[in-house]
Write a structure and sequence with these properties.
The chain is of the alpha/beta class. The protein contains 23 helices and 31 strands. The protein starts with a strand and ends in a 13-residue tail after the last helix. Bound molecules: zinc ion (2 copies) and fe (iii) ion.
Length: 764
């Protein structure tokens, strides 16, 4: 009787040609069985009458694995009975624990396909839609499951005999590659205004400083020469985009190295199958026109990730601005018709093709910190890969936040987050939310029976949830941030949660954002927060940091604030004092926001009085900060009542005094970062002593700040805390839906102990 073994392999083993490799290896060892992808990695079953050959097979898995694969764990166990395999097969579907089939995220062009498109003798020479089982479009073209060609937007293209032969040949890299295509049978490029050889004409257009809108993988992109001040300024003006930085696509790693500092892991992240935009320190911020990333010292950089992108670099240029093809904050454009009407006025040329994009997916943004990638915008290359949780969850839908919205569907131990949807401020974005939800619900066969949403009554997602005919649960924003951090790190015990961000609706209806919570998945206690200051002109205060500066000065100096002689008060804004006097007569909304405190300091220090995009003031303050010094500003903690308040007034008085003496902005920014870092450390230490808790979770948009993380994480560890931040989901509001989901699941579990996850609600 043959013996059957199951081998579970985890690590980087998907989208790297691992299954065909396993197949070739099994054939060589004359083993029958099967290989398939799962969420956690790859599962192999083999059957043999010769157990030593199974051992040898496993050894070869390690020693001969494909170059870009990385095996982290490989476990073999013997199964009870044989399955009667007659040969070794690659399972086409991807079942996960019998629950549902997984759709792969889109995968960047692999090295072998890259060779094909630059080999003049290859039939795919310069072909923009080359792909194989290891690379190419996936999520963006899948209309239904199972993932087979008729269920993708490749359906209208009939494979030619050569492509068909590759598709059917187990030994070929294009065996069962659903989007397989070649110049004879696949999608084609066209350029508008019309010219011969669309690709070459697009390259020339870019070289001439023109703006080209191109149909990318998950949506249209707008490209121009990143080194031409004129081209970049033109794009910025036409796109009506303030100073929000542009991402730059660079020819190859050598080009990236010329412009940016690049560590080993950052290099790996850039060239990973997900190929995200990676935030890198620029060697010389002056190398790029100011309009690319004004005032910042980090640049969002990505490598070409489709053949089309690689071909754009056939010209002389190394650096192209590559930004989402949309109008201001609307969803990214995906259809040719939409591109003509919406992007026509922005671009000079349109590079189109005839393969439809089904799902919109923006480029992802990531950085490297503390030995792990940190995803700051989770979209192409990551979505819809689930986050694996430690516990089984009920079928829920968490609707996410207002800004940087994502939603989250749970199924068994998996949390499936949507790609980045965007700011839920317009009808188009809500439509995108609904369209993605329909798709993911269908794909994962999910029927949520509870909706979790933010506590804020006016968020578009909250109001959407109320309109559905389902039970709902409101979740406090900062609790959700911490729960998301706990969930992705598999933390089960209560934690000290430091939840710092721009804004979130508080349980007392004030605007929270500088919160220290003692919490678990079920609930939280607000242990400490930054002192409340008035939020004057609620929505305007988000962008106009000088309003926050004034509010903090009012808080710190009382009526005397008008006598301050600060550079901040130029003639145009002098009028604000009278406005404040009037506004302050009626009780204003109060805020403990840490993000707004950053805005206030940036304004006081003369770095940024008014942001043109969310987070600008804080990013500029960080970029300006001199990190060498050791001086701190005074802060008081008022422990007389619960929750404690972190009194920022002594700091504000000191900074105001320094500003009046024209103290260096870089020094103020540096000392401010250190003060916030030190405050976090001290409050956590005290709360740790009081509660005996030894785990700290850091979440919220403020923790996108590298300087702050570098100040806080090592110091908390040195104090003996287990410190967790984010890696798989963003620390900003893009990760909020995961937190809402796990909190809602815990509520269901406790309040309905009879509730069985996966229960259909019917009587048995
Ligand atoms: Zn490939
Ligand atoms: Zn073909
Ligand atoms: Fe937030």
């Amino acid at each position: 009787m043959p013996q059957r073994y199951r081998i579970s392999v985890t690590g980087v083993v998907q989208g790297v040609g691992f299954r065909p490799f396993v197949k070739r290896l099994a054939d060589r060892f004359a083993l029958a069985g099967a290989v398939s992808n799962t969420t956690g990695g790859v599962v192999i079953e083999i059957e043999t009458e010769d157990p030593p050959s199974a051992e040898a097979f496993v050894a070869a898995l390690h020693s001969e694995a494909p170059r870009s694969a990385r095996i982290e764990q490989c476990e073999m166990r013997e199964l009870e009975s044989a399955a009667g395999y007659s040969s070794f097969v690659i399972s086409a579907s991807r079942p996960i624990d019998g629950l549902f089939t997984l759709i792969s995220p889109d995968i960047a062009t692999c090295a072998e396909c890259l060779q094909d498109i630059f080999d003049p003798a290859n039939r795919r020479f310069h072909y923009a839609f080359t792909n194989c089982t290891n690379c190419g479009p996936r999520y963006s073209i899948t209309t239904q499951i199972p993932y087979d060609r008729p269920n993708t937007t490749m359906a209208p293209f009939r494979m030619c005999s050569e492509c068909e032969a590759e598709y059917g040949d187990e030994a070929n890299r294009r065996f069962h590659a659903q989007p397989n295509a070649c110049p004879r049978c696949g999608p084609r490029l066209t350029l508008e205004p019309k010219r011969e050889d669309a690709m070459q004409a697009a390259v020339s257009a870019l070289e001439q400083g023109r703006i080209v809108a191109l149909k990318g993988l998950g949506g249209f992109q707008l490209a121009c020469n990143a080194l031409s001040a004129e081209a970049v300024a033109k794009l910025r003006a036409r796109k009506k985009r303030g100073r929000k930085p542009f991402a730059v696509m660079m020819r190859d790693l050598a080009a990236v190295e010329r412009y940016c500092e690049l560590s080993g892991p950052e290099r790996e992240l850039l060239s990973s199958p997900a190929a995200p935009i990676v935030l890198l320190k620029m060697r010389d911020p002056g190398a790029f026109p100011v309009a690319v990333a004004s005032g910042l010292n980090r640049l969002g950089v990505m490598l070409p990730y489709t053949p089309l992108h690689h071909l754009l670099f056939r010209g002389s240029q190394d650096c192209l601005v590559m930004t989402s093809g949309n109008i201001s904050e609307e969803p990214i454009v995906i259809s040719n018709a939409e591109a003509r009407t919406r992007l026509g006025a922005i671009c000079d040329d349109l590079l189109l093709h005839d393969r439809e994009i089904f799902m919109r997916v923006d480029d992802s943004v990531a950085c490297w910190f503390d030995g792990r990638p940190r995803i700051l915008r989770r979209a192409r290359g990551y979505a819809p890969e689930p986050v694996r949780l430690e516990v089984e969850m009920a079928d829920l839908l968490a609707c996410g936040a207002e800004l940087k919205n994502t939603f989250c569907i749970t199924k068994g131990p998996y949390a499936i987050l949507s790609q980045h949807i965007g700011d839920m401020e317009n009808y188009e974005t809500l439509e995108f939310f609904e369209e993605t939800l329909r798709n993911l619900k269908g794909v994962y066969r999910a029927e949520p029976r509870l909706l979790a949403h933010d506590l804020h009554p006016d968020y578009l997602a909250t109001r959407w949830a109320a309109r559905q005919n389902l039970p709902t649960l409101a979740v406090q924003h900062h609790h959700a941030h911490i729960a998301a951090c706990m969930a992705e790190n598999g933390v089960r015990q209560p934690v000290i949660g430091v939840s710092l961000d721009g804004t979130g609706y508080g349980s007392d209806a004030q605007v929270w954002g500088g919160e220290f919570l003692i919490c678990d998945y079920f609930g939280f206690r607000r242990a400490a927060h930054f002192r409340y200051v008035p939020l004057i002109g609620v929505n305007r205060a988000m962008r106009q940091g000088w309003r926050m500066a004034a509010a903090h000065l009012y808080d710190a100096f009382g009526k005397d604030y008008r006598r301050l002689d600060l550079p901040l008060w130029d003639a145009a804004r002098g009028c604000c004092w009278n406005l404040f006097d009037r506004l302050l007569q009626k009780p204003p909304l109060l805020t403990s926001s840490c993000g707004r405190l950053f805005d206030a300091i940036a304004a006081l220090a003369g770095i940024c009085g008014e942001s043109s995009y969310e987070g600008e003031a804080a990013m500029l303050l960080e970029a300006a900060a001199e990190t060498e010094g050791s001086d701190l500003y005074p802060i008081l903690v008022d422990r007389t009542a619960a929750p404690w308040t972190i009194d920022t007034r002594p700091m504000i008085r000191k900074i105001a005094e320094e500003c009046a003496r024209s103290h260096s902005a870089a020094k103020i920014a540096g000392a401010f970062h250190r003060t916030i870092g030190f405050t976090i450390e001290m409050i956590c230490a005290e709360l740790g002593d009081l509660t005996g808790l030894c785990t700290v979770c850091l979440s919220g948009g403020t923790f996108q700040n590298f300087t702050l993380l570098e100040l806080v994480v090592p110091r908390l560890r040195a104090r003996g805390f287990n410190v967790f931040t984010h890696s798989q989901v963003p620390p900003n509001d893009g990760g909020l839906s995961l937190g809402q989901a796990v909190i809602a699941a815990e509520h269901l579990r406790r309040e309905r102990p009879d509730y069985v996850p996966g229960d259909t609600g019917k009587d048995h």
